[in-house]
Description:
Elements: H1 11-34, H2 44-56, E1 60-65, E2 71-76, E3 84-89, E4 95-100, E5 108-113, E6 119-124, E7 132-137, E8 143-148, E9 155-161, E10 167-173, E11 196-200, E12 234-238, H3 248-255, E13 259-264, H4 266-279, E14 289-293, E15 298-303, E16 308-314, E17 319-324, E18 327-335, E19 347-350, H5 359-363, E20 368-370, E21 373-374, H6 380-398, E22 405-409, H7 441-447, H8 450-461, E23 469-472, H9 475-478, E24 485-487, E25 506-510, H10 515-526
Parallel strand pairs: 13-16, 13-19, 18-20, 19-22, 22-23
Antiparallel strand pairs: 1-2, 2-3, 3-4, 4-5, 5-6, 6-7, 7-8, 8-9, 9-10, 11-12, 14-15, 15-16, 17-18, 20-21, 24-25
Helix pairs in contact: 1-2, 4-10, 6-8
Amino acid sequence: MAYKGRSAEGTHARIRVVEWTAGIFMFCGLFIIWEGDQSWLQNAHIFQYCNAIKKNVNASVAVERDHHRQSNVTMEGDHHGQSKVTIEIDHHGQSNVAIEDHHHGQSNVTIEVDHHGQSNVAMEDHHHGQSNVTREVDHHGQSNVTREGDHHERSNVTMEVDHHEQSNVALEENHHDQNNGASQHNGVGRCNLFRGKWVYDESYVLYLNGSCPFASSDFNCRKNGRVDSDHERWRWQPDECDLPRFNASIMLEMLRNKRLVYVGDSINRNQWESMLCLLRVVVPHDGGKMKARDNGQFLQYFMKDYNCSIEFSWAPFLVRQNQNNGNETLKIDMIAEQSQHWKDASILVFNSGHWWTHEQPYEGRNYFEEGGQVIPYMEELTAFDKSLQTWAKWIHININPHKTQVYFRGYSPVHFHGRVWGKKTGGGCFNETEPIHKMGKKAESIYAERKRMEIVEKVVGDSKNGVKVKLLNVTGMSMYRKDAHASVYTSKYATMTNKNDYHYADCSHWCLPGLPDVWNNILYALLE
């Protein structure tokens, strides 16, 4: 199914898009026509532009071919020096097309196609610096087209082509009349990215196992002794579209002059470290500086070249933990003290859930505090609901929707109960190397955390004062991934005398590389 793009008004911007796009395909057509496919001329737009060249350009064409069917085609304009077209094709079918206007220096187009059928198209306006178009097609036949402009441009253009060669073009004008080339990079439109399936893909490598210095000792499974790697090769395939592959360069441009802040528990730290690992493909380890504040509860990695930071704020309940006469309580009507770090962030990714299942909040006796009073008993999900309402109120009062994008990541499933998916021995995720292929009703009822997620969906969906919170609903897709947990391959593994002691298995957190990378890939696709 093709992507469903978004459109906006703007007649002049639309004309520019059509002209640029038609121009690109026109010069692609020159090569196809030379190879003998005359049917391509039946396309009205191509025929029109070909005629325009014949009428308006006094051109000379030179063609060279050797016995390997390599060819060079050069077309030069008249004495006014208005245009020059160069097409080069080697014996693999690779081609480069360059179009230059020497008089005005207005455009340069380069098309590169490798022997896998992959292609890149770059279009630049050297004189005014107005546009840059890049088209990338991966081995799945997926295509991205990005056009970047300077401060005079008013349009964002995204073209996505799926494996059926269907395409949509989205043209959008932003409210500042400025072009952010990465803001509409994904083309997922209204596609539900969270409904799909896991597909094993040997080529799915976002970064090398064990190569990331940002992966903490408890998440760096390969370094801790895990030898299998199939859990890294499962790619998420939505039912309605293709998930655009994470591109670190584009992501960094989207983050330029911005703050991306992950807020929550250790699972969100897991995801924060994943993002640092993904970006490290472009930014070397010494390309940034790590700072820790508030006794390590606030971590910030700043990248000078992009003037951006990727941050983590420890707030497992999102509301305030308190000491009351020596006893710990949770003030469910007060936001966490860490909230001072959340203001003025460009992108906020929240989560909360795992700490609510710990003994004190789960029992709910003399633990929750509201209105300055300790409540003798409150059911845990009721307190969870009230706490999220406190968080939502803080969001609506303190967040400017024109400056900050807000996301809430759904509950991350645990896999401690192996019998749920038919495992006859104990240990839950211990020694699991494949996802759950068929989810029974019993397993789904346990892993989906339906009641908790219903509260999350209710609170997140209740947008107030113009603040729209987007739900990263990863719970359903993640409950299949019993194979991706850290298991015994944590910092404790080296000191384990019995390497098969599954009582040490961590079936909450995830290996890196692994599942949190996919969560971040989805975040990347949804960012505006």
